[in-house]
Specification:
By secondary structure, the chain is of the alpha+beta class. It contains four helices and two strands. A two-stranded antiparallel ribbon has the order 1-2. The radius of gyration is 14 Å and the shape is globular.
């Protein structure tokens, strides 16, 4: 979730954000299996080995994406630069041991749809 919950992301922002998140995951030896986003938050489905600390992965993904997005897309500055943070400090993580990947992808894709 973005820090101040403004509608910050456009399609171009989300495309770049996905690549940034893929790069961060690869640096940790993880796989970004699915990515979707809305104007003020993103959803990631990540396969990661047990040796990776989830908090470290999330911290790095948020930090790297915030710095790169600020550099590459300065126009949304009025929304989140006053706090000098793109993301809120919180995140949600859940584990999905036995569900087929197609079911998980379907769930994540449905998160984009307005209620």
């Amino acid at each position: 979730m973005t820090k101040v919950r403004h509608r910050v992301f456009t399609g171009a922002h989300l495309e770049r954000m996905e690549q940034i998140m893929r790069d961060v995951c690869a640096d940790f030896g993880c796989e970004l299996a699915e990515f979707t986003g809305e104007a003020n938050h993103v959803h990631l489905l990540v396969n990661f080995p047990p040796k990776v600390a989830l908090s470290c992965l999330v911290n790095s993904a948020k930090g790297v994406s915030s710095r790169r997005m600020r550099t590459e897309f300065p126009e949304p500055a009025r929304h989140y630069y006053r706090a000098n943070k793109l993301w809120s400090g919180s995140y949600f993580a859940g584990s999905v041991g036995g569900a087929p990947i197609r079911v998980l992808r379907q769930y994540i894709e449905q998160q984009d749809r307005p209620v």
